[in-house]
């Protein structure tokens, strides 16, 4: 670098031309420009590029993780919805079966109650018939007694 500056000073001393002298300073300036770009690239641009690349990688990883989480959440939601639908179907089936069983029990109870009522009616009818027959027999005997008394009274006169 010092040699470069020394050469620049010698070249500038030797040629006292105008503003646009094309001598050894032009290649030297090009070399100086290239050296500065390499130094800037190493010192500033590479760390900035590294930070930007890390940031891009972090964003990519975050997006990948987020999309994987979203996909998993969608799968879980679908699974839970399927389980919920299946549970509803089972609950409806249980309710339907319970209603049918309750209907059967009610029908059986009604049938038993009807049979019991018919039996009670038949028993009451039979008892009434027995009481009627007893009353008729009692009346017959009383009629016989009364008719005998009437006949005796009529014959006694």
Please specify the SSE layout and strand pairing:
Elements: H1 2-14, H2 25-156
Organism: Sphondylothamnion multifidum
Subcellular location: Cell membrane; Membrane
Protein name: ATP synthase CF0 subunit II
Q: Would you write up a description of this structure?
A:
Pfam families: ATP-synt_B. It is found in: Cell membrane; Membrane. This protein has two helices and no strands. The chain has a domain at 35-125. By secondary structure, the protein is mostly helical.
Task: Offer a concise description of the structure.
By secondary structure, the protein is mainly α. The protein has helices at 2-14, 25-156. It has a domain at 35-125.
Provide the gyration radius in Å. Answer: 62 Å
Largest sheet: none
Order of helices and strands: HH
Structural class: mainly alpha
The total strand number stands at: 0
Fraction of residues in helix: over 70%
**Oligomer class:** single chain
Dominant shape: rod-shaped
GO cellular component, one term: plasma membrane
Keywords: ATP synthesis, Cell membrane, CF(0), Coiled coil, Hydrogen ion transport, Ion transport, Membrane, Plastid, Transmembrane, Transmembrane helix, Transport
Organism: Sphondylothamnion multifidum
Coiled coil: 114-149
